[in-house]
Design goal:
The protein contains two helices and four strands; from the N terminus they run ααββββ. Helix content is about 20%, strand content about 40%.
């Protein structure tokens, strides 16, 4: 959907690989490392690239919400972890 975020989705293999590649940047942003790192769901928004909002289960019932910007391929720029919010509960809505 142009302009708005998609409904919650389960990642396919390619999306999951992309999110897992962001783990080091996510942990650096959060200021801690995570024992568990299970992508639960995400939304996406088409802009001048793609904005992902990702729900990741990290410890017990703790989830984190992550906002990632992936520029259009022709820019040659890498993806950027913009926001990491810790201490979320399962199923909590995204608020960035």
């Amino acid at each position: 959907m142009m302009g708005g975020h998609s409904d919650y989705k389960q990642p396919n293999a390619e999306e999951l690989e992309f999110f897992l590649l962001q783990r080091a940047a996510i942990e650096q942003h959060a200021g801690r490392t995570f024992q568990d790192f299970e992508v639960v769901r995400f939304t996406q928004q088409v802009v001048a690239g793609m904005i992902y909002q990702v729900d990741i289960k990290v410890e017990g019932d703790e989830h984190i919400h992550v906002k990632i910007f992936k520029p259009l391929p022709h820019t040659g720029l890498p993806a950027e972890v913009q926001v990491v919010t810790t201490g979320k509960q399962p199923g909590a809505p995204f608020f960035f």
